[in-house]
Design goal:
The chain is mainly beta. The protein has one helix and seven strands; from the N terminus they run H-E-E-E-E-E-E-E. The strands form two sheets. Strands 1-5-4-2 form a four-stranded mixed sheet, with no helix packed on it. It starts with 16 loop residues before the first helix and ends in an 8-residue tail after the last strand.
Length: about 100
């Protein structure tokens, strides 16, 4: 085709909201397990990329712990009212160099 124009769109290289979330994101699919957060709960253990249903104060949320690192963080960073609970995220076996 003589004189035809071809338009090339640049790819959007900005990270998505999920990619920027340091502690993961609310999951839309089923959780692999359920963790009940009670008054005596001080910590929970999760694995990177694990989806967990968190039950606390009569409410629940499925959360995928797509974390950038394994540093502990307060549950309140993702669930209101979870300030006295620390989340420990173990490295995913998918990323281990065994």
């Amino acid at each position: 085709m003589i004189g035809a124009r071809i338009t090339v769109a640049a790819a959007d290289s900005r990270p998505s909201e999920r990619e920027l979330a340091p502690h993961g994101y609310a999951a839309t699919g089923p959780a692999g397990r359920t963790v009940v957060i009670g008054p005596g709960t001080r910590w929970i253990n999760v694995t990177q990329l694990e989806t967990v249903e968190l039950r606390m104060n009569g409410k629940s949320v499925a959360w995928t712990f797509d974390t950038f690192g394994t540093r502990p963080f307060p549950l309140s960073a993702i669930v209101p009212g979870g300030r006295s609970v620390t989340v420990y995220a173990e490295e995913s076996p998918l990323y281990r160099d065994d």
